[in-house]
Amino acid sequence: MQKYIETNRQRFINELLDWLRIPSISADMNYKNDVRKAGEFVKNKLIEAGADKVELCETAGNPIVYAEKIIDPKLPTVLVYGHYDVQPPDPLELWTSPPFEPVIKDEKIYARGACDDKGQAYMHVKAFETMMKTNSLLCNVKFMIEGEEEIGSNNLGIFVKANKERLKADVILISDTSILANDTPSIDCGLRGLSYIEVEVTGPNRDLHSGVYGGAVANPINVLCEMIASLKDENLHITIPHFYDDVVDLSTEERAEMNLAPFDLEFYKKDLGIDDIRGEKDYTTIERTGIRPTLDVNGMWGGYIGEGAKTVLPSKAFAKISMRLVPNQSSDKITSLFQKHFESIAPKGVKVTVRPHHGGEPAVTPTDTIAYKAASNAMQETFGKKPIPTRGGGSIPIVAMFEKELGLKTILMGFGLDSDSIHSPNEHYGLFNYFKGIETIPIFFRNYADMSK
Ligand code: BES
Ligand code: MN
Ligand code: MN
Asked: Which terminus has fewer CB within 10 Å in the chain: N or C?
């Protein structure tokens, strides 16, 4: 197997680069055709690799690529999930090379989607090809690669509900998370949920002269800033009533164990160009991103933002706000708590509208299963070190959905690094990580087949 991977190394890279050239930005309707092309690309690669029943399944949005290889119905089945859509590359001027013209620098592939998630999803396609061509596929496999993860996976939810029989499996395997470092493997055992909201504050019925009216009429941008600032207290604790009611507090022992994971504060600060960290009082960085909920403004606009100065008191102000949720919080409940609270703190003189966007539920994945052991042992074999169970800060809403609809647990065997700049300019993915994934995945399959006997 190792020999097959080595012989085909350059082709495995080139194919990924071809896939990365397709700008499959799901958030932007102008790229609808490219998103489909990216789906067709991976569909064809799955056919070439030897999968059966390969299909581009239409949805109300972007198509879902489905494929399977059933070698023996009596053997266990692994359902591999990934996504071929990517985040918008903005701000473009901060990229050192164009986001959809991948280049390899310092043994890393630079492109939007290089890590999240084309690079990681493609490891599974090449691992599958490797197992097929070397006659070493030891369990059944199904693939489901979607094109709407970055916009909330709404149509995937519908697809899963409608295709329960076809998606029958024993475990779900996803590579869309990160490891602690290339010499410190880890497996994410939890993901945060998400509530995403857009707010609009309206003041006067038109933009006004800021000298003629300034000081006498509520300025929606000022008001919005005050309202947002009031959502956290001096300890950076969120002030929305009942926000923390359902949060599961970890025991002192669990927290201590979690904090054993290596964390290099100096590297963290240096990588981000910050002189200090900032977060909720009495929690460590690992806890702040792993087991605590958050509230962040993702974007804010209004008034005049063109060149030069324009003296204007704006009529409207907007913000996009996300809250990351932890077990046992519910996205719908938090969204409505936010809405009620935000409307209640609006001062007289402005109107506030709260519009909920997509959401997603948090998930925890168990470490006492055969599948976890199979993954842990596989990583131990390829990295030479036992992976540390961690809690990831990001969200993959479909994981909770898989559990609810299919009754299946997920293994989050990701190979990215937090410093890969996913969603940021200059996203990249190490060749080391790409090939580590391609090597480790077949060992997971072998272990899982062995241990299920
Ligand atoms: N792959 C990420 C999630 C992720 C990244 C989890 C790193 C753990 C570590 C995924 O593509 C993503 O970006 N998800 C979105 C959620 C979605 C509803 C827009 C997110 O977390 O913002
Ligand atoms: Mn992803
Ligand atoms: Mn993403």
From this structure: C
